[in-house]
Write a structure and sequence with these properties.
The chain is of the alpha/beta class and 363 residues long. The protein has 3 domains: 3-48 and 173-230, no CATH class; 62-169 and 234-284, Rossmann fold; 287-361, Roll (Ubiquitin-like (UB roll)). The protein is built from 11 helices and 16 strands. A hairpin with a 2-residue loop joins β2 and β3. α2 packs parallel to α7 (222-230). The protein binds guanosine-5'-triphosphate. The site of guanosine-5'-triphosphate has 24 residues, from α3. One of its GO terms (molecular function) is GTPase activity.
Amino acid sequence: MSINEEIIAVEEEIRKTPYNKATSFHIGRLKAKLARLRDEVTKKASSKSGGEGYSVRKSGDATVTLVGFPSVGKSTLLNKLTGAHSEVGAYEFTTLDVIPGVLEYKNATIQILDVPGLVKGAASGRGRGKEVIAVVRNCDLVLFLLDVFQPQHYQVLTQELYDAGIRLNQKHPDVVIKKQDRGGVTISSTIELDMPDELIKTILGEYKIHNAHVLIRENINMDQLIDVIMGNRVYVPAVVVANKVDMADEYTLGKCREEFPDATYISADKEKNLAEVRDVIYDALDFIRIYLKPQGGPADMEEPLIVRKGITVGDICDRLHRDFRRKFRYALVWGTSAKHPGQRAGLDHVMHDKDLLTLIIAK
Ligand SMILES: Nc1nc2c(ncn2[C@@H]2O[C@H](COP(=O)(O)OP(=O)(O)OP(=O)(O)O)[C@@H](O)[C@H]2O)c(=O)[nH]1
């Protein structure tokens, strides 16, 4: 049996097994096996491609990947948003390589990548899918572009990315596994868990983890536990945009809206609602503005530094100059992240939107 056949067999068995307390251990083992098999396939696929770079170098403040089936209008949207010259064709697979475009919006420079259509089987290395996956793994936001006539594509696309270890609109589970040399598995949790300890131990056992401290701070399911054990998952935000509304009748549009009430409905070709797409991208990227204030002088309120939410003083040092972290003495912070105006802060201090920052760097 090939790995892909094995995967199908295990998936089938999971689907067929009714979930209850008695079968949960069996299912847990199957899921662990499935995750391992999928990982093997992904690794094989990437080693076959010689590991050579398909990736486009990241530039700007954030990178967005357009993901969609062939001919849904990705090249058209990219061109309209950024003025890049991605070839637009009325046939499938016009995008043969990654085409980067740059969207300048509200002081942010956002790189948008149009990648070859993701087709079923991408995670297993079919078509050019594995290259798309490599790009998606490294981006900051996935923009699913759907054809309003074919919303069912969404399911295929998200499943494809899921199988390749990409988790959309999810946070890394709040679980820490510390492997030990002996002492068995000890589990501590700060909340009540649906999964019994024995099941957690069974799943860990599938990965030959027999001695470990496990700290769990949220009510996770089996899949999330496996994600933590595998350790190579990426967590990426995603938004949905439905295209070609100019051709859609009320019924088609209504059906799509029912399924995707939060999607943005556009016509890339007729430039309808493109401003909304820019806002959706900007908001989903969670940008914040930091105003740099030279010591003793006024802050530069004209050109804030555009960074992502969660950024620390240390990260900002790295961005400004390669020596700043090493020569850093302390920072002064004004704004909502500061306990009081002009609070002294260290490298780990997390900045908020519209904070003012002074860096004191040794000469
Ligand atoms: N009616 C209509 N047609 C559109 C719209 N956007 C794109 N198209 C057309 O759809 C076809 C495919 O568009 P592309 O932008 O090449 O699609 P793509 O997703 O980049 O396709 P691949 O490169 O094959 O992955 C072209 O004929 C476009 O003119 C739209 O909003 N409305």
